[in-house]
Amino acid sequence: MRSRPKGPTELLDLVRLRLAVIFSLIALTGCQSIGYFSQAISGQVEILTKAQSIKSLLSAPDSNQELKAKLKKIQVIRDFALQELGLLDNQSFLEYSDLGREFVVWNVFVVPQLSVDPINWCFPFAGCVSYRGYFQEGKANKFAQYNKSLGRDTIVLGVPAYSTLGWFADPVLNTFLHYSDLQLVSLIFHELAHQIVYLPDDTTFNESFAVSVEIEGVNRWLSKYGLPADKEAWINGRIRHKDFLRLFSRTREKLRQLYASSLDDNEKFLEKEKIIVNLKSDYNTLKKKWIGFEGFDFFVSGSVNNATFVPLLTYWEYVPFFNKLLNTERSFQSFLEKTKVLAKMSKEDRETIMKSLISE
Predict the structure, then answer these.
(1) What's this model's pTM, rounded to 2 decimal places?
(2) For residue 325, what is the enclosing H or E element?
(3) What is the number of domains present in the chain?
(4) Does residue 349 sit within a domain?
(5) Cβ atoms of residues 7 and 13 within 8 Å
(6) Do the strands 105-112 and 152-159 form a parallel or antiparallel pair, or are they unpaired?
(7) CA pair distance 232, 209, nearest whole angstrom
(8) What is the tens place of the pLDDT at every residue in 323-344?
(9) How far apart are CA 27 and CA 130, in angstroms?
(10) What angle do helix axes 332-343 and 347-359 make, rounded to 10 degrees?
(11) Better pLDDT: 254 or 292
(12) Neighbours of 301 (CB within 10 A)
């Protein structure tokens, strides 16, 4: 088990050592890349240097009582993840960082105007992913505007948490303390799952796996701790989520077929707008079933474009496969081991197996 450095000097030495390795890999990629990684490194250093021991905060008499209650709950959730799901005990979520802002990073998704396939961005160790993350909202918006000027579709999403994939022990952040208890359960299980299995260059596999762990974890949490109202809220939320994703998946497929058609570009742009208008109309019809729930409004209230579909569907594409795999395995640990075996395969072989099980 890796221990965290106790003092700020040791901490900064660790950060510098690990990030120097990254800089050595990107030094020849040009000034723009250096600038991007500089802000990423500064953002990570801020998180780690602001980290305080949760144990110390809980024992301090002058600590905020509401904060203490949330941190106590998170420790219970963390213990559950380790004991009931066998997730890694690598010191994550044992410290707390207050960043003084609503989100920790802002992710920018970019897609060509006549495609549904995102532009990928490649990084040391993390591999290629379908977004670029910024620790400052202004820089994220600037990057999005730059891509719009190149004729691309973009969307910027604030993110409350992310995983450093075991490079550092991730602290609890103020950015997700406003979540409900059930949302905290989901978030912590999801982020810890990334530290068990992570494939460079396969965002969909990584996120779908983490979502499946999150769902199974919440189901087990509710079986042990859930009140009837919690269980009802979870079931209704899952139904809404499936309905919403089904609508967006159908719409993305219509766009995919349109872009692959023999129509000229002007005709494609016109049809694209019609499809998006129909999406918004269908969403408003679907929403009537939800009796006031507005949790998905963000994705349809503004300018819907090709990039809107990426963060929604990337996270869920292979969840049906992982759910089936969970049901066929005798234990959660054997499910994790099977997933690790899949992760060692070539992407082509892995996708063949996953799509085959989904279609059964």
Answers:
(1) 0.85
(2) helix 319-328
(3) 1
(4) no
(5) no
(6) antiparallel
(7) 24
(8) 999 888 878 889 999 999 999 9
(9) 22
(10) 140
(11) 254
(12) 11
Distance, in Å, from the CA atom of 191 to the CA atom of 175, rounded to the nearest integer, reads 14
Residues 190 and 78 sit within 8 Å (Cβ to Cβ) = no
Overall size of the chain counted in residues: 360
32 within a domain of the structure (yes/no)? yes
* Token pair belonging to 7: 């003092």
Helix, strand, coil abundance in the chain, percent, nearest 5: 60, 10, 30
Task: Characterize the bridge pairing of strands 127-129 and 121-123.
Answer: antiparallel
Domain assignment present for residue 167? The answer is no
Mean pLDDT of 239-261: 95
Is residue 34 within 8 A of residue 19, CB to CB? The reply is no
pLDDT at 174 over 90: yes
Domain span at residue 27 reads: 1-49
pLDDT digits (tens, 9 = 90+) for 1-37: 333 444 444 545 555 545 544 444 444 444 457 778 8
Position 237 in a domain? no
Distance CA 98, CA 67 (A): 11
Residue with tokens 């990629």: 29
Q: Which residue has the tokens 């509710």?
A: 222
How do strand 105-112 and strand 121-123 relate by DSSP bridges? Answer: unpaired
Rounded CA-CA distance 91/95 in Å is 9
- Quote the tokens at residue 272: 């694209």
Residue 200 C-beta-side C-alpha neighbours within 13 Å:
8
Cβ proximity of 126 and 200 under 8 Å: yes
CB distance 67 to 54 below 8 Å: no
